[in-house]
Amino acid sequence: METLQGAASTHRYLNVAFVGEHASGKSTVAGHLMKLLSPSIRLKSTFGDDKVSQKFIYAALFDKLRTEREQGLTITFHEGYAQSDKTKFQFTDCPGYPKYFKNLIRGIQGAQVAVFVIDVNGACLEEYKDYVQDQLIACFHGGVRNLVVCVNRMDHRDVNWQREQYDEVAKGFKEMALKVGFKDDKIKAIIPISGWEGDNLTKISDRMKWYEGPTLLQALEQIEVNFPKEQNEKPFIMAIKARHKIGGIGTVACGVVLQGTVRPDMELYIEANGLRTVVRTIEAHYESIQEGKPGMSIGLALKNISRNDLRAGDVLTEITGPGGKVIQRRALSITATVVVVRNPFKNGIKKGICVITDLHTNHSAVKLEQLLEKRDKRSGKRIQADPEKVETGDALTCTITLPKTFSYNRTPFQCKTFKEFPSLGRFLVRDSAQIIGVGIINQIQYPQPR
Ligand SMILES: Nc1nc2c(ncn2[C@@H]2O[C@H](COP(=O)(O)OP(=O)(O)OP(=O)(O)O)[C@@H](O)[C@H]2O)c(=O)[nH]1
Ligand SMILES: [Mg+2]
């Protein structure tokens, strides 16, 4: 096992996602922490002709879109970088508004720890309960196993730095996280903070003497993330989170390394459309690096392709076959086991319904083609063959058809069976802003070779 470390760096890398219910203060906490770690960052009170309202001054470090600043809410995920004595942090500020849940799902991919910023007023246990539970499921099923919880707005005049309300919210949230599957020892800390005033972010606050620590920074520093070394030697695979065209550099694919090591001049192909490309340069944390390893969030400058050839949700794979041959395989359908966590349909979940799957960084509309078996959620024992419908709490084996027509003759998503490659073999089943179930892929059906 090894920790993630850049070749030229003595720091380790840590990828942190900020999540939580709407308007709990995620962007403010992320922005304030970044400002405390990098005092040279300037807080902007204007962007061109736009004035930033004083109360969004920290949030504006992350909320970079004009509409986000105007409305004071995050729409898509944004990244920021900072470093402490031993860690280089990548902070990903995710949206909390339920309508933008899909952007949160993409934002948390590759994170090693989720910082849950929840409001001390307890909205995460009442108004946003289902939604916060969905965020927990998305983190857990997406492979984010470490949690740091920040109970925010301790400065609020009704709370006035006292512990009663903090205790209540902390207890309720912990119960919810344990129920979703998080291990007690992976909930690293539940910290009372004020994102706005900065209490307990990097220094212990003397306004809450009843809390002994750790601070948010200490809690993040204590998290150890190790990656199995044998993953380094396998063929390189990266899931794309975002694509850019940058002047002087060209097409850049940003994403998370799922397996293997990437180096400059490596030949890759885009599985979705079979196009080939070559790595020009690699960047992490605004620094040029020579090797990208599993778990790292990197940017690859690519030769011979344009920005439009890539899509967030695609997968880049190393060309390894004999003679560097690329075989583009279009999956027709998958057989999967899905545990239903919620049933939003009046008549139950039946065959033929259209749902959205979130597989790593990919979102696709798919059809539930056939319900094969209803199984016991815990033992996996078959309860019923060919069920007509399933309800909340059932486990279901089903076939899911993938859409056939796509521009550029693309495959909708690149997947593997869960057994073969867990991170490309598990997915969420969603209906707009709510999770219906969590699934794993058992089998993939490809067309017969002609
Ligand atoms: N009093 C007080 N206000 C805060 C604190 N943290 C954030 N706020 C205010 O809460 C409002 C929302 O903050 P944001 O950081 O935009 O919240 P968010 O969670 O990023 O919101 P979404 O991304 O839209 O879900 C802003 O007006 C902040 O100034 C805090 O600790 N105390
Ligand atoms: Mg925000």
UniProtKB/TrEMBL annotation:
Q: Name one GO molecular function term.
A: GTP binding
What range(s) does the Tr-type G domain occupy? 12-215
- Keywords assigned by UniProt? GTP-binding, Nucleotide-binding
Give the family from UniProt: Belongs to the TRAFAC class translation factor GTPase superfamily. Classic translation factor GTPase family. EF-Tu/EF-1A subfamily.
GTP-eEF1A C-terminal domain: residues covered? 334-442
| Protein name according to UniProt | Elongation factor 1-alpha
User: Record's superkingdom?
Assistant: Eukaryota
All copies of the Translation elongation factor EFTu-like domain together span 250-317
Specify whether Protein biosynthesis is a keyword of the entry: no
